Amino acid sequence: MGAQLREYKQKISSAQTTKKITKAMELIAASRIQKAMARVRASSPFSRAVTRAVSAVATHTTIDHVLTREAENPTRSAVLLLTSDRGLAGAFNSQVIKEALELAEHLREEGKEVVFYLFGRKAVGYFQFRQMAAADEWIGEADTPTFETAKQMSDALIAAYELDAAEDGVDEIHVVYNRFVSMMTQEPESVRLLPLEVVESDEAGDVPASAETYPLYEFEPEASEVLDALLPVYIQSRIFNALLQSAAAKQAATQKAMKSASDNADKLITDYTRLRNNARQAEITQQIAEIVGGADALAS
Questions:
Q1: Member of which family (predicted)?
Q2: pLDDT exceeds cutoff 90 at 127
Q3: Can you give the residue ranges of every domain in the chain?
C-alpha cells in the first residue's frame, strides 16, 4: 500500500511539473502572437496594393508575357510547402502537409509531375524520413520569417518557372500554408501563384480584387516592362504574406495546444489526488482493522 502511495505522489509531481512547462509555453505563445499579427497587418496593405497594380496591368493589356501565359500542356508543377521549425502545435503541421499531399495527388491525376519546395524543419524531416525528394528547402526562420528569405524562395521559383519543363523547369507554382483565421482556427490553404490568377480578396473576404473597377491606364514604359518589374514583386509579397500568416497561425496553434495540455495536466492531478486519497484511506482502514483485531486477540 505504501508503494502505491509513493507511485501516486510521483505521478502528481510529474503532472505538476508538466503543467508548469505547458503554462509557460502558453504564455510565451500568447505574447508572440500579438507581434506576429502586427506583422501580418503591416504587410497586408502593400500586398493588396501590388495585387491591384498587377491586376490593372493584366486587365488592360493583351500582351503575351511569360508570367501570365498559360501552358498548353502543363507537365510539371511546383508546390511550395510552408510548415514550422518546431512542434508542440497540435495538428498545425500535419494538416498542412496533408493538404500539400492531396494537392500533389490531384496534380498527378491531371498528368503533371510535382516538384516540392520545402520551408520549415517539420516539412524537411517529413520528406527525409519517407525518402521523398525536394528541389529546395529553407529552415530556421519559421517563427520570425524575413523578407530576404521570401525573396530567395521567390527567385528560386521564378527561375524554375522561366525554364522549359524539359530543362527541369515548371509550368505552375502553388503555395500551401496555414492561414490565420482566429485564435482558435487555422485553416490549410493552397493557392496557385503562377500562371497569374488575380483572385485576391480583401481582408474581410467580401469583394474579389478582380471584380474592382480600374481606371484606364497608359503604360510608360511598355506594359511588358511593367510586368517584368511588378510580377516578381507580386510573387515575393504573396510568399512573404503567406510566411507571416503561417507564423501567426503557428503561435495560435501552440497557445491552443499548450492550454489543452495544461487543462489535461489539471485533470490528471485531480484524478491522481483522488486515487492517492483513496489509497491512503484504505491504508488507514487496514491499520485500524489490524489494531482492533490484535486487541480482540489479546482480550480473548
A1: Belongs to the ATPase gamma chain family.
A2: yes
A3: 2-17+256-294, 27-255
